[in-house]
Amino acid sequence: MSTVLAKIEEVEAEIARTQKNKATMGHLGLLKAKLAKLRRELLTPPKGGGGGGEGFDVTKTGDARIGLVGFPSVGKSTLLNKLTNTESEVAAYEFTTLTCIPGVIYHKGAKLQLLDLPGIIEGAKDGKGRGRQVIAVARSCSLILIVLDATKPATIKRLIEHELEGFGIRLNKRPPEITFRKRDKGGISLTSAVQTTNLDTETVKAICAEYRIHNADISLREDATADDLIDVIEGNRKYIPAIYVINKVDCISEEELELWGQLPNSVLISGDLEWNLDGLLEMMWEKLNLIRVYTKPKGEPADFEAPVILRNDKKHCTVEAFCNKLHKSIMKEFKYALVWGSSVKFNPQKVGKDHILQDEDVVQIVKKI
């Protein structure tokens, strides 16, 4: 590991001292590809090395998993206790939580699993402390809450982002609009639907050569960067929404409060005094992008007490996805569905399995006779 760390430091130092201009684009792309490969080598668990460690093997439950991430003593355990009534040890000294402690939030009919992760330290992405286990669990989350201490410098935010990015987590970003397809011959073909300022053929070839890829079709549908192309080639990046939870705002001045409030994707709270926890829950719901769909048995009123929770995208909020969430066998007997709600033009409307549902729709399944 020390050899890999030394190589990472060398490559990072060379990137830092290389001037960024058109002439060096290819060389910088090559260096970034080398760095990505070294990080993958560093963070890949050794074969036969066991699991993630005591307390980290937490079974995924509920409709979504949310991870509390932050440096030690920022109030993660307090927040878990307040939101879930789970007992996670709280103390005014660092590294209180040494394992992953789960809790459950019930909100708008959804069951949300909240994980209090041990405080990460600078260098976690390089395997320091228990950073590997902490961030590996964070990669499995639907949403990450980055808890920051309002009394500490705002620069800590960037340090945490750097650690998560080093482990292949991309916060509040979508996958790059790049199509990458290997082929047997023909060399490297680069096409673009937009004007590009960050990638040229030389840079793309240099990056591909580092991965020993000599024949591929690459199509850009945005002004992508070398880092974007590397992410696509690596193929193991996680694009996860994040909320910056600014805790302990009861301990700062109005001027500091105003400055923290300008941070995008942030919510100001006091875990100890339970200030604005409802606001945090609402932002969590918005970021998770979930919808509630209610069931209606034939001849009976709709069940508004126990909604079926679906992800709000075209793949995961269809009638078919709704049926599969209820039971895998339903689609075998599915004939059509009757839907009441904002996704249809009139109520009820007869729809097929590909119909896209919207929040608070009511669905009745009609089976084949």
TrEMBL record:
PROSITE patterns: G_OBG, GTP1_OBG, TGS. GO terms for molecular function: GTP binding; GTPase activity. Residues 289-367 form the TGS domain. Keywords: GTP-binding, Nucleotide-binding. Pfam families: MMR_HSR1, MMR_HSR1_Xtn, TGS. InterPro entries: Beta-grasp_dom_sf (IPR012675), DRG (IPR045001), G_OBG (IPR031167), GTP-bd (IPR006073), GTP-binding_2 (IPR031662), GTP1-OBG_CS (IPR006074), P-loop_NTPase (IPR027417), Small_GTP-bd (IPR005225). Residues 64-289 form the OBG-type G domain. It comes from the Eukaryota. NCBIfam families: small_GTP (TIGR00231). PANTHER family: DEVELOPMENTALLY-REGULATED GTP-BINDING PROTEIN 2. This is GTP-binding protein. It comes from Galdieria partita. The lineage of its organism: Eukaryota, Rhodophyta, Bangiophyceae, Galdieriales, Galdieriaceae.
